[in-house]
Amino acid sequence: MKKLIIINGPNLNLLGKREPQIYGSLTFNEFFETITSKYPSISMEHFQSNIEGEIIDKLHEVGFTYDGIILNAAAYTHTSVGIGDAVAAIETPVIEVHISNTYKREDFRHQSFVAAHAKGVIVGFGLQSYELAIQSFIPF
């Protein structure tokens, strides 16, 4: 059984409340229940932190034993060399995801310190971005 983890960064604990016109009205826990039931053959868990160091620690913890990491580092994507370095340092493949299309937003959101070290990047498909990332770990 494949083992995946979704790691979410700052403010994603407010999904369902925060700017629903951009992020939708579902909480992440509601969405997570849906995808775990849709993919019962995959062991999935999720982790969220508003603290950069905790995200780095979690990447280090799972980055050598899991089959895949789906990372939405949120605003840290554009500011954290440390998270980018942590992704580069681990062996587990990472898919960078974003709910919104970061290229349709402020210019500073066009830069990613994660992308150069990720297996791929998925942006702009709402919460479906996570599901597309999950599917990338499923062999055809």
TrEMBL record:
E.C. numbers: 4.2.1.10
Top-level class of the enzyme under EC nomenclature: lyase
Reaction catalyzed: 3-dehydroquinate = 3-dehydroshikimate + H2O
Active-site annotation: 23 (proton acceptor), 98 (proton donor)
This protein's pathway: Metabolic intermediate biosynthesis; chorismate biosynthesis; chorismate from D-erythrose 4-phosphate and phosphoenolpyruvate: step 3/7
Record keywords, A-Z: Amino-acid biosynthesis, Aromatic amino acid biosynthesis, Lyase
GO molecular function, one term: 3-dehydroquinate dehydratase activity
Binding site for substrate: 72, 78, 85, 99-100, 109
Feature type site, description Transition state stabilizer: 18
CDD domains reported in the protein's UniProt record: DHQase_II
Gene Ontology annotations of biological process type: amino acid biosynthetic process; aromatic amino acid family biosynthetic process; chorismate biosynthetic process; quinate catabolic process
Quaternary structure, from the entry: Homododecamer.
Function: Catalyzes a trans-dehydration via an enolate intermediate.
Family membership noted in the UniProt record: Belongs to the type-II 3-dehydroquinase family.
The protein, known as: 3-dehydroquinate dehydratase
Source organism of this protein record: Bizionia echini
